[in-house]
Amino acid sequence: xxxxxxxTIALVLNELEELSFVATRDLKTAMPSIEPFGVATTAxxxxxxxxxxxxxxxxxxxxxRASPGLAGATGEVESxxxxxxxxxGLRGSWKALTAYLAQFAEAHAVFGAGxxxxxxxxxxxxARAHLESAEVYFSxxxxxxxxxxxxxxxxxxxxxLRALQVAxxxxxxxxxxxxxxxxxxxxxxxxxxxxxxxxDILRAGRLRGESFFRLEGKDSEEALLAALPGLRTQExxxxxxxxxHAVFGAxxxxxxxxxxxxxxPFVETDGLxxxxxxxxxxxxxxxxxxxxxxxxxxxxxxxxxxxxxxxREMGMTHPPLDDNQNVTWRPLFAAFGDDMARFQLxxxxxxxxxxxARIQARLPNHVPRLLALxxxxxxxxxxxxxxxxxESLEMLVGRRPLISPWSELIAADADILTAFRLARVWYETNxxxxxxxxxxxxxxxxxxxxxxxxxxxxxxxxLGREAPEEVQDGQGAPATQAPAAKTEREASGGEDxxxxxxxxxxxxxxxxxxxxxxQPAASSRRLRQHxxxxxxxxxxPEWDYREKAYRRDWAHVQERALTETDAGCAQDLLLQHAGxxxxxxxxxxxEKPQRPIPLRRQLEGEDLDLDAAVAYVADRHxxxxxPASVYRQRRPLARDTGVLLLADLSTSIxxxxxxGNGRVVDRLKAALLLFAVTLEEIGDPYAIAGFxxxxxxxxxxxxxxxxxxRLTAHQRAVLGGLSGRLATRMGAAIRHACMHLGRAGTxxxxxxxLSDGRPADYDDxxxxxxxxxxxxxxxxxAADRGIHAFCVTLDPGGGAYLxxxxxxxxxxxxxxxxxxxxxxxxxYLRLRDR
Amino acid sequence: xxxLIDRLRGVERDIVxxxxxxxxxxxxxxxxxxxxxxAWRKRxxxxxxxPTGCGKTRFLEHMxxxxxxxxxxxxxxxxxxxxxLVGRFLLEGESTVWQDGPLTRAVKxxxxxxxxxxxxxRTDSTVIIHPLTDHRRRLPxxxxxxxxxxxxxxxxxxxxxxxxxxxxxxxxxxxxQRFVAISFQYPDADTEARIVRTEVGxxxxxxARRLVAIATQARxxxxxxxxxxxxxxxxxxxxxxxxxxLSPLEAGEAALVSPITDDLDLAHALREIIKAHFSA
Lengths: 834, 280
Hints:
- The complex is a heterodimer.
- Chain A has four domains: about 5-225, no CATH class; about 235-445, no CATH class; about 565-590 and about 640-834, Rossmann fold, CATH 3.40.50; about 595-635, no CATH class.
- Chain A contains 33 helices and 16 strands.
- Chain A is elongated and about 135 Å long.
- Residues about 460-530 of chain A have low confidence and may be disordered.
- Chain B is α/β, with parallel strands linked by helices.
- Chain B is built from 13 helices and nine strands.
- The longest helix of chain B is centred in the C-terminal third of the chain and has 15 residues, at about 205-220.
- The radius of gyration of chain B is 21 Å and the shape is elongated.
- The interface of A and B includes residues 243, 583, 591 and 826 of A.
């Protein structure tokens, strides 16, 4: 018997009535909306509803309930009814079906009738492989999938994911939401490589993979940075910094902000540093933004005095500071309550104008560039703010007459307080619409950003332009007093003598004469004997000037390793001196042995040495037979110099430097690092060692870098972690160093001693001459061995005793501690060329 | 007219240059003319300090003309020996003859002798000027076994660029302190614009000012990768290129960017600065 549609409908109703009251009711409720499409259609629809219900109650109910709406929205029934049947057989698919039904109307609108079916089919394809993927897929708004490009947009995002699902078992649903963000930020081409990378990471670890696809964590950031379009700040950091430097004469350090997909590239600042987004859409926006924000720093938006003035204006005596001594802005705006965003916008609008006007005075294309970047004003309540910003900039380039209040901000004495006051006036007029805090971001022109995003360090004239208005009671001083004494005690490992002596011996001036407790006279025979517990080390004689004789095996030198390292400090110091290093490198390259230098009076060569030739002819005429060395030749001069830099590591280097700028040891570290790096560049063999002493039987010699190794990261870190300890028994250290130099195997040997005070030890008994004389003898011994010794001292009074020890012209007093890092490598180069 | 003919032909000129009728253009920056004249009256040797291309040589040409003294200029280089300055024996037929070097000629003729970039010369050549710079005012000619008493109008002038290769090359303090020093800086913006305009001839004032603004900003990059900042001379070059028909950006690239750096980032930054002043 043929089943007519009417019979089918009746059968379905019958069947459902037996099974479920709710389902029957749902069917009857929906039926009137479907019936206009014809009885056959209605029958097919009802049968589908029943089948889905029989397969999965929730699926059936969802179908029946969604039907009236879908029929109304799409104007047809067959397509989605037919496609819904695709979910039959997919166990547990009701969630996906519900989502499908909920979005079909939108898909129909976005993709058209045929497109909606393809959209559904794509989802079903995902569902057959991985049901949850389909749930995710169907729950995403079709418009997002299409990205305004219809089916093409859908295909370009789904196809790579489906391919990966097949090839690598990547659940498409896991990657899909992130893929949409990636496409929105970087374009469709970035999706496939990004997802492929994610699939690999997912294989390596489920959690890592999942966080990758959530666009979280390091893996994700790396992959995204690699795909980042536009100008990547990291790559262009130097260029941007140089450009800002040229304009303002100084440039604040740049730090990257984390990757923020889809967010506008706002620059933030804490008053010292500019925090820059990972990328800008293009170079123009990057330049505009960098200039604008460096302008804020240069023209005093965050200057101490002015920040204080702002808070005073609002009746607060003192800006509130957070734990890092930063000014927190919120209390400044608290008075504006819910309307805070509106006030902040006005304040920023005026202050940004003030800054851009001043930049424009230096850089005539700044405002034109901002205007070119501005583009279309955003719709909505922020529009007037955006338009006001554009109009005000147009006044700056003469496209509009300059009117108040903008004109007041151009005045030479206008500052952030002017902007603040004008903003309050504007705020009161109520002509500006209220804005939500989310949409307010759209009010900023490209290149500008909210100015009070971060707490700031109030500073006097960040870029050294404007003089500070006033200095408040000590607020400007950073509360980070370096814990100077702490590291000193744990400086070196093993049986270092500084671990067993009371702190009063290690502090102070390192056993310098006349300081600290009275000590037994070293030069007397009453000196204690070699301590039994002490490792013997290498024994050296010491010169006793009163006896005019050596004391045999008197001083004992032990080699110890410095275990304290600070790679970060080394890195910072090298960065800090990057400019100097570059100049040194260049100078060194110019001096490299490869460079030919002219040699005169050669037996052969490319050029005639005129003077030699004349002398030759004259000699010949006078009957002599001179050698025919009449040529000039250019050839690389081989240099054969080895240098050992011996640094005094006594306690006194931990002192604050005389100019009050940090400790002596900081410059010392920088000097040694630059010396090492420069010598690596030169290629001459060199070694670095330090020394300190406590009593004659415990002279510590710290080899830091030996002759036969390239400079390692560890050695750099040791230099970065140097600290001072104990006293200065220089003679013994020099003798030991000479032993090392003797092994260097170079023709010329140079011992460069870096000290900050006179030779002294705890047991010299206040007779400073004793160790002086011994050191002088040690230098003589060195000279006898063909070692040239030269002393660089930081002791301004060094001239009084160094000439006697090292001889005239064999020492140098550097009283400008700042110069040490640049001078030390230069001194070496000069000495070498002597 | 004579000038014009000289320009057209490769004319051999004596190293002792007699002052010409029209002196070179010079724009004073400060009291340098008064200091130089005072030093001249007392015949004290003069050291001109200042960065490359800031007008040291031009100043001296101007002063020589102003004082009506002949000028002997020697550009020092690393191969310059004392014989190159003082003189040497040459062969002539069967015998040797002595030929005076430029310094000796200046000493005899009472000229102003200008040793440009003296640090470049070998140390032995810097030492021979010592006896000329103190009360003795004598030039020893070691090879001939005699000394020359300097002409009463002789004046020694050296130039010295302190920022220049100070890492390795520097004048010995004993040499430096024998001189009266005049420090030059790049001129202030108005003066520099005037100089550029005058030197180029017919350059629009606005263009000259823009060039100066570029240089001011580019000079901030000295020691941040730039060893030598954009000089007044390079601005004159840029201006001349603009007058010769190049666009300001092209001229800037050719005169203000490429010559002073090979560093890509730095060149990029300089280019942006030029763009900033010429594209608006």
